[in-house]
Design brief:
By secondary structure, the protein is mainly alpha-helical. It contains nine helices and no strands. It is 72% helix and 0% strand. It binds fe (ii) ion.
């Protein structure tokens, strides 16, 4: 999988929305760090990074259609948009199906069924907590039952010291 090509395509897709670009860049960076830290195989890391790059792909449409980027609107709209985007980027069907599944459930922790998905969720959590400027105690309380990877927990402790 060509992660950098996917990243550059997603930057084009973002049409200069720097908030979206900074968000997906942050989530991809965390996803990569967690995958490498956990010693994941290349495919797991690539799936996690690819999902991180496209996970919020429905946001531009949701802003127009619903006037918001609510999590359920994103999960409902994200799959087909991600599928078309990934197909154009030349990914094979197995990879597209896995990434589309993660995009379609990326706010539903109970749907996490693999290391790639868990990494996406933890990476998005870290980025969102930073963007929302949450207090350390709040971040740790929310993350307590959700985080599973050692590297995700390590990042959390490093950023939000308590
Ligand atoms: Fe996100």
């Amino acid at each position: 999988m060509n992660i950098n090509d996917l990243y550059l395509r997603m930057i084009d897709f973002s049409e200069g929305n720097f908030h979206d670009i900074a968000h997906l860049s942050g989530v991809q960076g965390f996803a990569r760090a967690i995958a490498l830290g956990e010693g994941c195989d290349d495919r797991t890391r690539e799936l996690a990074e690819a999902a991180a790059i496209v996970h919020d792909i429905a946001c531009p449409l949701c802003r127009i259609k619903y006037g918001d980027t609510r999590w359920d609107h994103q999960e409902a709209e994200g799959g087909p948009i991600a599928r078309e985007f990934l197909k154009k980027a030349g990914l094979d069907e197995a990879d597209i199906a896995r990434i589309v599944f993660m995009v379609s459930h990326h706010h539903t922790w109970s749907m996490s069924d693999g290391t790639d998905f868990q990494i996406l969720l933890e990476a998005d959590f870290l980025q969102n907590a930073g963007e929302q400027k949450l207090a350390a105690a709040e971040v740790h309380k929310a993350a307590e039952k959700l985080f599973k990877t050692c590297t995700g927990k390590r990042l959390l402790d490093a950023i939000w010291k308590i």
